[in-house]
Amino acid sequence: MNERVIADFVGQFYVNDMDRAEPVRGRIVLSPKRLVLAGEDCKVTIPMAAMFDVAVGHVPPEMREFFSDTVTLAYNTDEGRRMAVIEGDADTMEKFSTVLFKANLNGREVTVQHPARRGGRVVDSPAKQARLSVDDGTLAFRSGDSSFSIDLATVTDFEKERRTLDGTSRPALSVRHVPRTTALVSVFALTSERLMNLLGRYLRLEYTDIVESLSDMSLSDEEVQVLLAIYSAGEDVDPLDVVAADASQTTMVLKGLRKKGLVVDDDRGTALTPKGRVVVNSRLEEVNS
Fold it and tell me: What distance in Å separates the CA atoms of residue 259 and residue 142, rounded to the nearest whole number?
């Protein structure tokens, strides 16, 4: 392959139109233009532009006896849609999935409104054309001489919706993130449904990592009360002034929440971290459901 290689490793793979029931061991080679799966007696080439979905860790039920650490690709061919399941060791697959998303998304043109909301207030920011890049858990947007980035560790929620950007109604991603202590909502739309789907997958993967890191964390009723108080009171209010409990006890609870990475202190007081906001959002959803 006379192209720049960005991933090259030995693993096993299965494509759902293969004339066999078991996966093939072979070489997996990725360039900016295509993915090549090469076994001893078969070769599959998947153009980058044909990929429309990437799932990390998901194994189709019929293949679970053969695979564990996987990346599953859905792609279009002249004969219809196909699926390829690729497996390697855990570290390799984590790196491969990141490279695969970057190869699909980096340098793409995007229409972005940042921010569309600040706190609970709508902001009249103009929609701009920018170039997207994905690197080290960050979405970066460059437009002319200006740029901004979203650290995906600060994302607390996102959803796909229709938005009017630059006078055109189109599918867009609305991303809620907390770069410091104020929640922002940024909206962006890529040029195709395929790329929008892949970006949504990438965000979902990062968000799932945050949620999973919280799944084994136990919280007392007092800790939940303090988190909700910080959320309700706002970033400029001292939790000791609003929590209906002994001040020394609240101080001890806050110390525990800091160790768990759910609150942080800055020059304006105590605020929720992105993980803290995920916890609060889940508690509010339980109350409202």
Answer: 36
Residue 80 has what pLDDT?
Answer: 94
Q: pLDDT band at residue 93, thresholds of 50, 70 and 90? A: very high
What is the pLDDT, as a whole number, of residue 289?
Answer: 43
Q: How far apart are CA 4 and CA 104, in angstroms?
A: 15
**Choice among 45-49, 120-124, 146-150, 263-267 with the minimum mean pLDDT:** 263-267
Rounded to whole angstroms, what are the CA distances from 31 to 13, 49, 279? 17, 12, 39
CA 241 vs. chain centroid, Å, equals 36
Residue 99: name the closest of 6, 28, 26, 9 by CA: 6
Q: How far apart are CA 100 and CA 120, in angstroms?
A: 36
Rounded CA-CA distance 134/156 in Å is 18
DSSP 8-state symbol, 3: S
Length of the chain: 289
Could you tell me the domains of the chain? 7-105 (2.30.29.30), 109-214 (2.30.29.30), 221-288 (1.10.10.10)
Handedness of CA 51, 57, 60, 65 (dihedral sign): positive
Q: Tell me, what amino acid is at 13?
A: F
Q: Give the span between the Cα atoms of 51 and 75, in whole angstroms.
A: 4
Q: Which residues contact 25 (CB under 8 A, 6 or more apart)?
A: 10, 11, 12, 39
- Confidence (pLDDT) at 1: 59
